[in-house]
Design a protein that fits this description.
By secondary structure, this protein is α+β, with helices and mostly antiparallel strands. Helix content is 20%, strand content 32%. The chain is built from two helices and four strands.
Length: 71
């Protein structure tokens, strides 16, 4: 079963919340991904390409979904 881990960083009114799914089934939801990507050795541009459907995966990240502010 997938495991969802909620990762909360400082919520800025201009940051979006993202749902990131990894190849092992782990799912995290977090506000803003640029700093998280840098701190965890991911390329945020490639992550955004996954979200736009222009890339299938980046390292162990397989899906990225932008969530509504109400989610």
């Amino acid at each position: 079963f997938p495991v969802t881990i909620l990762v909360h960083f400082e919520d800025h009114h201009f940051s979006s919340t993202w749902k990131i799914t990894f190849s092992d089934g782990k799912i995290i939801e977090k506000c803003g991904i640029s700093k998280w990507a840098r701190d965890n050795n991911y390329d945020c541009n490639k992550i955004y390409l996954i979200a736009k459907g222009k890339r299938k995966k980046h390292k162990d990240i397989v899906t990225v979904q932008k969530l509504d502010k109400n989610t």
